[in-house]
Inverse folding.
């Protein structure tokens, strides 16, 4: 179990980063609070080894969010602007649970650490794929049918976005090498591939179960709007739920691969 000093230091570190992110417009008030919770779990329980992959995800995903912002300004996305609590927990909630489980059941520390890193690897893979793919000049293709769809539409994949997903997963896995411990090279490959696989699950759910809305003039949206009707998927399956399932899938894949 972590010491009291480590827990206090972790909470203070997480709060500092969340406040700075809020002041920079990266997080909403609710998002900042959720980030403190997730960060406190990682920093306070896992220490600097767990902090490294979480900070890697947070830093790179927010840097890419600014990439070609004008190009992506009119893309069809469900949420824009600062991340709220739902978005933070959808991307970091599974990782937080995994690292707390590592402290509660130290005999299963390796499995819990792998699940923690895989969840963040998937979140980073999905973010990189979305940011790079939605800025792509060419059309995306629906992952289920390969028919062309506008870049940025849920379930749509592009070659640049797919390559970015693999790279994003690998970057987080590399940052977590000290946490992965023994047989780190095998864990590195497994976590990278499981994070990437989780992002594909995310895309598949985005193309099949995630709610899609359309208007009479054939405009598209991923959240209910005036004049829009449900055109596919399930009304209660939104982007945040899909992201949560993606991170959970990556964690379960990694646990199965490295047991």
């Amino acid at each position: 179990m972590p010491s009291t000093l480590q827990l206090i230091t972790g909470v203070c570190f997480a709060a500092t980063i969340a406040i700075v992110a809020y002041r920079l417009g990266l997080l909403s008030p609710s998002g900042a609070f959720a980030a403190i919770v997730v960060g406190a779990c990682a920093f306070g329980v896992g220490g600097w080894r767990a902090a490294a992959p979480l900070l890697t995800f947070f830093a790179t995903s927010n840097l890419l969010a600014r990439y070609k912002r004008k190009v992506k300004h009119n893309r069809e996305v469900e949420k824009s602007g600062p991340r709220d609590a739902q978005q933070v927990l959808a991307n970091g909630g599974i990782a937080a649970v995994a690292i707390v489980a590592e402290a509660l059941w130290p005999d299963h520390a390796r499995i819990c650490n792998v699940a923690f890193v895989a969840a963040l690897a998937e979140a980073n893979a999905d973010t990189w794929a979305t940011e790079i793919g939605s800025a792509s000049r060419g059309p995306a293709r629906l992952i289920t049918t390969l028919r062309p769809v506008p870049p940025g539409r849920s379930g749509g994949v592009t070659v640049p976005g797919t390559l970015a997903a693999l790279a994003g997963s690998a970057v987080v896995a590399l940052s977590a090498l000290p946490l992965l411990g023994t047989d780190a090279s095998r864990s590195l490959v497994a976590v990278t591939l499981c994070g990437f696989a989780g992002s594909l699950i995310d895309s598949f759910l985005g193309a099949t179960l995630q709610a899609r809305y359309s208007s009479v003039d054939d405009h598209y949206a991923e959240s209910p709007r005036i004049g829009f009707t449900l055109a596919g998927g399930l009304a209660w399956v939104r982007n945040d739920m899909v992201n949560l399932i993606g991170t959970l899938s990556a964690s379960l894949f990694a646990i199965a691969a490295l047991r």
Remarks:
- The radius of gyration is 18 Å.
- The longest helix spans residues 29-65.
- The beta strands are 140-142, 148-149, 156-157, 212-214, 220-221, 229-232.
